[in-house]
C-alpha cells in the first residue's frame, strides 16, 4: 500500500511529446502512478507543443490549452520548454509581458492562470531535458539566440517569482545524450527518453513530489 501523500489524489500532467509518450511504451507519469497510486491521473501531453504560442499552432500552446484541462486537481505538473527552444520562433520577451506570444509572457500567463484555476492545488514545473542532434537540432535557437540551458533558466526564474517549485531535470536527470553511452541507454533519438529514461525520470520526480 502506497504511503505517498498523493495516494488517492487527482494529478494532471501538462506537456509535450515526452508526456504524450513518444519513444516509450510506458510514460513517466504512468510509472509514477504505479509508485504512488493516484486516485485519478490525466495527462495533457501533445507532441510538438510549446509553452509560447505561435500563429500556426492552432491554439496548442500550453499557455493557451491549460484552460481546457479538468477544473479540479490536487497536483498539477508542467513539463515543457524543449520545443520552444527546438523549433520555436516566439521572442523571449520581458518579465512584464502577459502575452502568450513571447516565452516569458507565456510563462507569466501559464503560471498565473494555473494558480487562479487551481488555488488549492500543488503546482510544479519540470525543466527540459538535455538534447542531442535531432531534427535539425542546433546549439542556439536561431530566432532568439538562446541555448536550451537559458530557456531552462528563464523558466526557473519565473517560477521563483511565483513561488512555484521546480525540479531541474536539465541539471539532474542523469541523461546527457551527447554521451553516446547515455544516448544508447536512455534517449536513442537524442531527445525522447525510452522506457529506461522514463523510469529514471520517475525515480527523480517521485521524491520531489513528496516535498510539495
From TrEMBL:
<dbReference type="GO" id="GO:0016787">
    <property type="term" value="F:hydrolase activity"/>
</dbReference>
<dbReference type="InterPro" id="IPR036514">
    <property type="entry name" value="SGNH_hydro_sf"/>
</dbReference>
<dbReference type="InterPro" id="IPR051532">
    <property type="entry name" value="Ester_Hydrolysis_Enzymes"/>
</dbReference>
<dbReference type="InterPro" id="IPR013830">
    <property type="entry name" value="SGNH_hydro"/>
</dbReference>
<keyword id="KW-0378">Hydrolase</keyword>
<dbReference type="Pfam" id="PF13472">
    <property type="entry name" value="Lipase_GDSL_2"/>
</dbReference>
<feature type="domain" description="SGNH hydrolase-type esterase">
    <location>
        <begin position="13"/>
        <end position="200"/>
    </location>
</feature>
<protein>
    <submittedName>
        <fullName>SGNH/GDSL hydrolase family protein</fullName>
    </submittedName>
</protein>
